[in-house]
């Protein structure tokens, strides 16, 4: 059998500083503040350490509005109906836009995708919508298909390996080329028939998959926990090429997927490295790092890129946890601008503005051309702000019906004005969520930690 092309050999660490800086208890606290802490590998966590919990999500940098932009309008593109949200981020490029939605959406139905999050397993990926159906992976690695109009479950299939009895967090689903592609925390990619859930092919990859696959140009692209990107043939699962990033032992719990266009694949790794690769063979086009240059605290040493990169109009936009957000020329990799903003959520691009949720629970609007800050809206950081207990994780945003929607681990969804960041509406969700909303066919969907999917129209 011919050898699979390996496009890159991992660089060795110059020191152990990035690993050694974060001890296991501190990492658990970091993960607890940044996202849900269920066991990635399906193991039941040890009992919590005794003592008072103090939040480590301290503010490291203040995001300030560029006063030159005061009073300038935020122009939005016309709202468009997107018939599908087929992959993480909506499309392979994660391109955003202003999606069609009612000005005052109300709850239309509730559906059940299967097992919700538990002490040992997590819900890490959003559902996808295509061809009148919703496909989602639950916390037990089951994939379910629901009717888009009513939320009724049509089929449900277990994607775990045949002799596997435990659970594993990670992975997610994508729809393309008439197939549902499910990547799992068991280190497999499975192609399913969307009509009935039957398995078309199954392929092992080098390790547990972090997030949902990205499918572009007949290739299924998956990122593993140890920073490997593998490209599989969508037709039969054969490995076409692979790319190895820098190994990193510390990272944030959560799903991330590569971005892809017909001419570039963008791989975001937990090391803070961002690679631009040729889609036909995985060869390196350019390389960038979002690791912090100035380390002002323990969090800045955690360089993970967990927000999805965005490709739009020849530019790649990406944000890292350690406090750097960049715009890069898609073709040659030159950095066009950089700003000191950190986050774990996907930037949303619409017209000439980017909208992003920061590590400090702020929603920020920036100009697309230069990264200048137009406005900043702080959101609640704790359910008990006086004692700073109960940290809140905000996910999103998504722009739909001319409003920005963010969802919270406190069981709330907020609608904000993209013009000035004012909170316009508050919704009570049936369950907390750590996932952003998704939108298709004039409907907004929110998946709760309990496995309940709510549709708003």
TrEMBL record:
- The record places domain Pyrrolo-quinoline quinone repeat at 140-376, 393-456
Specify one Pfam family. PQQ_2
Which parts of the chain span the membrane according to its record? Answer: none
Q: What is this protein called?
A: Pyrrolo-quinoline quinone
Q: What is the organism field in this record?
A: Roseomonas genomospecies 6
